[in-house]
UniProtKB/TrEMBL annotation:
Protein name as annotated: Response regulator
PANTHER family in UniProt: REGULATOR OF RPOS, TWO-COMPONENT RESPONSE REGULATOR ORR33
Domain Response regulatory, residue spans: 18-134
Cross-referenced InterPro entries: CheY-like_superfamily (IPR011006), Sig_transdc_resp-reg_C-effctor (IPR016032), Sig_transdc_resp-reg_receiver (IPR001789), Tscrpt_reg_LuxR_C (IPR000792), WalR-like (IPR039420), WH-like_DNA-bd_sf (IPR036388)
Lyase found in the keyword field: no
Residue ranges of domain HTH luxR-type in the record: 251-316
């Protein structure tokens, strides 16, 4: 049985940007749909706020054209919800409104819009406004995709409240694995680390990196650059990289003829862990860890933890010079 791809993966973005138009008036949809389609865009439509949220979550469009005044959930609420969700927070929103009073235009921008056009809609004006915002969005998407392709996940975090403004697919997977959540806020340790080192970063001094551990895997966070400034610290691009020592454990198993579990126990001895800690990590009892360690001593021909760790470290450095014990 073939599992269907998520909509955002099935859409061909190599030659066409994806636009979501949200309007409850069919005539407005038709005019814009035809103009954008002729200009080479892939066009999706929604006629209500709830449909817009569902379609945006499925398709992850490159930009949203959003009617401000709709029955039920209006465009302002749709925008707030899109910006609150990490998966869609990065998508530029252009409001379409017949209301020109200052308070309505301010409300559109405060809800998360980057721009607005007034009704009746003039397709050429919409295309011109879209092009301005699409260039930045396109470059940002290409950068995020390139980082993921090379194993570097990335997130954007607002220093003031810790909100995740956007995250790459790889970043979402890693945050879920290490912290059990991928938003709407960055994990508490990441927020604390960012705020603690803001001053250094603002002075262009790279602060110490944050490291999280998950078994033999380590995830490092590095402050890359400031994306936007305000009085409360601005928005920051954080680059993440995961390193796994599974290869090191495998090498010890082969080198010393250890079982997989014995090699894992020896790995944690090299890392300086006591039996009780190792038991918690590998999901066994301290007594079981002790038995594994006794067999490791026998196979290595040593009598102490220190001797076993020293022998293992020498071999690891021969095979993996960059390993940090």
């Amino acid at each position: 049985m073939t599992v269907p791809q998520p909509l955002h993966q099935a859409l061909d973005r190599s030659n066409s940007d994806v636009v979501l138009i949200v309007d409850d008036v069919p005539d407005n949809l038709a005019v814009l749909h035809d103009a954008l389609d002729e200009s080479g865009y892939t066009v999706l439509v929604a006629t209500s706020g709830s449909a817009a949220l569902a379609r945006a979550g499925q398709a992850l469009p490159d930009i949203v054209l959003l009617d401000a005044m709709m029955p039920g959930m209006d465009g302002f609420e749709v925008a707030r919800r899109l910006k609150a969700a990490p998966e869609t927070a990065h998508i530029p929103i252009i409001f379409m409104t017949g209301l020109t009073e200052t308070e309505h235009l301010v409300a559109a921008l405060e809800a998360g819009g980057v721009d607005y056009v007034t009704k009746p809609i003039r397709p050429k004006e919409v295309l011109a406004r879209m092009n301005v915002h699409m260039q930045g969005a396109r470059q940002a998407r290409q950068t995020r995709n390139a980082l993921d392709a090379f194993g570097y996940a990335s997130i954007a975090v607002r220093a003031a409240d810790g909100r995740l403004l956007w995250q790459t697919p790889l970043a979402r997977q890693l945050l879920l694995a290490y912290y059990g959540s991928s938003g709407p806020l960055a994990p508490a340790p990441v927020q604390a680390w960012l705020r603690r080192h803001l001053r250094e970063a603002e002075q262009l001094v790279e602060p110490p990196r944050l490291t999280a551990e998950l078994g033999a895997r380590r995830l490092t966070f590095r402050l890359h650059q400031q994306l936007g400034q305000d009085e409360e610290g601005g928005d920051w691009l954080i680059v993440m990289r995961e390193v796994s020592d599974d290869a090191v454990i495998g090498a010890m198993s082969l080198s010393f003829k250890l079982t997989a579990r014995e090699a894992e126990v020896l790995y944690w001895v090299v890392k300086g862990k006591i039996n009780r800690d190792i038991a918690d990590i590998v999901g066994a009892s301290p007594a079981t860890v002790k038995k594994h360690l006794e067999r490791v001593f026998d196979k290595l021909g040593v009598e102490t933890r220190t001797a076993a760790a020293g022998m293992a470290m020498n071999r690891i450095r021969q095979l993996h010079p960059s390993f940090e014990g």
